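# nightly structure sweep
# worker-07 picked up a monomer target from the shared queue
# config: single-sequence mode, recycle default, output format = structure tokens
# input follows
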Amino acid sequence: MNSIRHKYNNRGLRPVRSTHSIRTRVPYKKDINTLCELFTVSKTWYQIARSDQAWKTQFYQHFKLINNQYSNWYEFTKHHAILNTRWDRGQVMTHYLLGHLDSVYCLQFDKRLLFTGSRDRTVKIWDLCTYQCIHTLYGHDASVLCLRYDDELLVTGSSDTTLIVWSMRTRQPISRLTGHMSSVLDICLDSNYIISCSKDSTIRVWDRHTFELIRTIVAHRGPVNAIELVGRKLVSASGVGLIKMWDIATGECLRKYVGHTRGLACVKYDGKRIVSGSNDRTIKVWDAEVTC
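# output follows
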């Protein structure tokens, strides 16, 4: 191959005689920095080191793939590497959102908006392009501890024991849900239900359309700190260290998960696995189909 003029380059790589041999022996096994250095060796090396297959291999070695619909693996891998470096070095752009008068207890966001709930009894909606507060919602008589929204509804829960349902279109309250005897600690939404859990040890299931209470589940012996809904299955995490799975349509307890030694602070469920965080300083990953 005429374009390779030296016996060794500065990385100690031997030139090889076939393009196929170079492709199999060099790019796939080298790190990102080495591939970048190969750009300067020759035009042939540049073409090989810049190949989609080489950079696709690099991406799979270093990053988690969300989907496979990419046509320029070099650019895709480069952007991920730059982002990781910025996180590692703390090279991030920080924006402070000022407006709440006390501690912020909960939030949810998407590409355009950020919703925050505070001890100052308000919910604020922020524009993530301008980082300005565009709405402040008043209605609770105590701290806003949890919130959840979708395209149509925002639901907030408070230390005042109530939930308020808001219209996402008008930002106005639609209904106040009462019944809990203590602070509302977490909320779930789907197309049929609004589900809330409380320090009063119960889970309440509300009709999303009529806002009527469907059922009350006496779920745990202590506070129900977190809930997560997938389909008909609801996972609840308690302040006494126990996780339970429920059929939300019937209120039946399907499974119990025992292993934490102190209260649970949070839980996530994806239909197959449950991930729980506890005051016992551990995070546990559970097979949701196996009772422990």
